[in-house]
Amino acid sequence: MTSAVPNAPQHEEPDARPITMFGPDFPFAYDDFVKSPHGIGSVPDAVHGTKVAVIGGGLSGMLAARELLRMGFQPVVYEADQIGGRMRSVPFEGHDGIVAEMGAMRFPPSSTTLFHYLDEMGLETEDFPNPLSEATSSTVVDLKGESHYARTLADLPDVYHQVADAWLKTLEELAALVPLQEAVRQRDVRRLKEVWNELVRRYDDETFYGFLARSVPFQSFRLREVFGQVGFGTGGWDTDYPNSILEILRVVATAADDHHRGIVGGSQQLPLRLWSRPVGDASYWPEGTSVRSLHAGGRPRGAVTEIRRTEPHRFTITDAEGNIDTYPAVVYTAQSWMLLNNIRADERLLPIDHWTAIERTHYMGSSKVFVLVDRPFWKDIDPGTGREVMSMTLTDRMSRGTYLLDQGEGRPGLICLSYTWADDSLKLLPLDAGKRTEIMLNSLKQIYPDVDIRSHIIATPATVTWEAEHAFMGAFKANLPGHYRYQERLYTHFMQDRLPAPYRGLFLAGDDVSWTAGWAEGAVTTALNAVWGVMHHFGGRTAPENPGPGDVFDQIAPLRLED
Ligand SMILES: Cc1cc2nc3c(=O)[nH]c(=O)nc-3n(C[C@H](O)[C@H](O)[C@H](O)COP(=O)(O)OP(=O)(O)OC[C@H]3O[C@@H](n4cnc5c(N)ncnc54)[C@H](O)[C@@H]3O)c2cc1C
């Protein structure tokens, strides 16, 4: 997501194994699973060619469709908006190769399963210029009208060091940071479950803010305020303060906010390539078959408007063009709220407790504003100070986070003028691109009075507010306190032997079902769960050498909290 979550402090031994997004709720090694030469499963020949509806053409849907095709199914993709979903890279007309990342834009290398598919699809990554990171030549932190220029954390005034220390101490004292990260590194499932399950029991009812307020190192309100407004790593945290502290601890435990990399050419290429590239080693299908080639006109079906359960054990789907088709199984990857309003959904699709979980799901809003400028003028040196005229900027003003995205020598420069979440995003909701740009330029003018950003702008600004997008209604899920049980229900829904038979056959996947919403790794791993579920539903199995998430589920299942 780039939640407002900062760099996870790490205790790094020189030869330590890397921290990955292994668990902590369901510590299954998805990265090893997808890399195995034994494949991720197969189905009986009689099942080959069976149509499975895949609702949503974002990363999760595209990955599920591709892996289902590989197993010999015929995935039928429905998409309401465009292939890519929240991996939306918007080009600027007349400026080839430059895109504004409206959704996902920076990816932690700890997303090892995501990176496997990036490699498979031949995509390259590069350092992303986060605040104070190595890829960022300078950062300005501007708070309560006072600006500080820094190349590293060491250049910032003492209060920022106090905040960094307080955060590290709090994590060590209240959240068992050291054993938690060590268990993730070592992939020590028993130890990880011991430590994490205890944290779940202790903190499911706690907000992020409440967690800080009860910590001795954060007794000063001033420190909590500074931490909330600028944080460290990717920026301020206060828009996350009302959320469950477990959401934050997952990010910290798995280094999701560290060492981010951007996808060269734009993140949307990943779902687009999963859709259009032939699947080399597919069962049943002739060489050269891709998900796209299985679709008439090379286009997905339109938006789903209705899903009903029909006899015997079928799903009948209507789309926006009025087509009605019936399938023996469905993978559903759109935000789950769509099942409450945009889609007429048969109540018999899910057990009542799952509907409750969907109704209670909480999403964060998010807005971005990008401008294309004639050149990376921010690298000009101010003769008075000897510094670059403008830096990556964190501020408590309306723009909050401003990112400078160098496109290379002799090319225009790209500026993400503003990236906001929750209430800060809501403040922009009713405003058009022009008004938003004006507000952000004004905000930055207070920090850089001598820089005329407007004079460099060469294209219409690009902007988005995800909560206003019809097919999304939010940027990413963020559990509130007390939501663990809902999350556990939705995540484990792919284990359908546990459900009464009339509720089987529809598999939930995607970012909002994952434990780490706002991170593409969760879209990938929940897609793999759903693929395992579909395979199992049709009598398929994995190779004994490479058991899947459902095969080992009972040994590593997420903690189930009782009433
Ligand atoms: C602002 C923002 C910043 C982010 N930053 C990062 C980041 O830096 N790093 C990172 O790892 N992750 C980030 N993420 C998260 C990442 O984008 C998601 O995890 C991932 O893209 C989700 O993929 P998905 O397939 O689960 O869902 P989606 O991408 O939402 O795909 C669901 C698809 O379903 C479609 N749909 C909706 N309704 C219907 C219908 N009725 N019929 C058919 N189709 C329908 C939608 O149009 C959409 O294409 C960010 C997300 C946002 C919004």
TrEMBL record:
UniProt xrefs under Pfam families: Amino_oxidase
Gene3D superfamilies from the UniProt entry: 1.10.405.40, 3.90.660.10, FAD/NAD(P)-binding domain (3.50.50.60)
GO molecular function ontology, one term from the record: oxidoreductase activity
Residue ranges constituting the Amine oxidase domain according to the UniProt record: 59-533
Chain sites annotated for binding substrate: R106
UniProt: FAD binding residues: S60, E79, A80, G103, A104, M105, R106, V304
Cofactor dependency: FAD
Keyword check for Protein transport: no
Assigned keywords, A-Z: Oxidoreductase
PANTHER family: FLAVIN MONOAMINE OXIDASE, LYSINE-SPECIFIC HISTONE DEMETHYLASE 2
Name listed for the protein in its UniProt record: NAD(P)/FAD-dependent oxidoreductase
Species this chain originates from: Nocardioides immobilis
Lineage: Bacteria, Bacillati, Actinomycetota, Actinomycetes, Propionibacteriales
